[in-house]
Design goal:
By secondary structure, this protein is mainly α. The chain has one domain. Helices cover 78% and strands 3% of the residues.
């Protein structure tokens, strides 16, 4: 490969996610014109308060579980910041990540909050990598079991049949089990993942990663199932959420804005009305994205204020 071709390929890889994101946003905006938003808003306002409070509790619990991924990373990287502070940094960063994208919350804010307390950039990168690994390990477990035991019924043409879905579930479970086997055989060994050296945890810690990662996804699935009014089966609600997570990761749209809505509408429009689906997803965004951000903003402001006073 010539230098010119190699350089062109590098730029193509950099631009492709942004082009894809622009196409997704255009299609979503075009689709949004056809939605009767006043009806969606009236449906949303008619939600029982008890239903919203239950999902809000699930959202905060899921957020707390996700923040514990950094506590696992603290043990694996052996840095000196305490577990409570590590958890709070992760909670703040994850809230920003959900609303503004991984570059700002998942990495940028972590860098600011961790390096301020003496950690190196390399260590922060390892913490972020362990968090991502725990999250997607849990995704593989939940998606694998869901697809194999109770494949979700979704009205999307490009989603394969039950046999293929069960086979895909088996593959995902093998990926998750393979990770635990690697940890059992080579726990403590260092591997390179995305130009970042990380140490494989021992098998007990890998099981904790799988348990916490799975719990986070199961809680989120329970929340959207609750907001959909329990009118579809739980595996379908959970399965569509898992599918939407992958679509959002591929599209690189900040906060998966519009992608989550589009996937749920495409998958469930034959079983629920579009207004009911959109109202449920918007409520999900409010309790899973905006509520943690409302709590994270003053926490981050207090951290900045404390740091400035200490510097002064």
């Amino acid at each position: 490969m010539t230098p010119a071709v190699r350089q062109a390929w590098v730029w193509a890889k950099r631009l492709a996610p942004w082009v894809l994101a622009a196409v997704v946003v255009f299609l979503l905006l075009d689709y949004a014109k056809e939605v009767d938003w006043p009806v969606v808003w009236r449906t949303l306002k008619a939600f029982p308060v008890s239903l919203l409070l239950f999902s809000a509790g699930l959202a905060l619990t899921s957020h707390a579980v996700y923040a514990s991924f950094d506590v696992i990373a603290r043990f694996l990287t052996r840095h000196k910041i305490g577990p409570v502070r590590s958890w709070s940094i992760a909670a703040i960063s994850f809230a920003f990540n959900l609303n503004f994208g991984a570059l700002i919350g998942g990495l940028g804010l972590r860098l600011r909050l961790y390096t301020r307390r003496g950690l190196s950039i390399g260590t922060v990168g390892q913490i972020a990598m362990y968090s991502v690994l725990t999250n997607w390990l849990g995704w593989c477990w939940v998606a694998g079991v869901t697809l194999m035991v109770a494949p979700p019924r979704v009205d999307v043409e490009w989603v394969p049949g039950v046999v293929v879905l069960r086979a895909l579930g088996v593959v995902l479970l093998l990926v998750a089990i393979g990770y635990h086997v690697m940890c059992a055989l080579w726990g403590g060994a260092t591997i390179q993942l995305r130009e970042q050296n990380i140490t494989l945890p021992h098998w007990r810690m890998s099981l904790l990663q799988g348990a916490l990662g799975s719990a986070s996804w199961l809680l989120m699935g329970l929340s959207i199932w609750n907001l959909l009014g329990w009118r579809i089966d739980y595996p379908s609600a959970l399965g569509v959420l898992l599918l939407a997570a992958v679509a959002g990761a591929i599209a690189h749209v900040p906060a998966g804005l519009g992608v989550l809505e589009a996937v749920f509408v495409a998958a469930l429009h034959g079983r629920l009305s579009v207004t009911d689906i959109l109202a449920a997803v918007l409520a999900y965004r409010a309790v899973h994205h905006l509520l943690p951000l409302l709590l994270a903003l003053p926490a981050y402001g207090l951290d900045e204020l404390t740091a400035r006073r200490q510097a002064a």
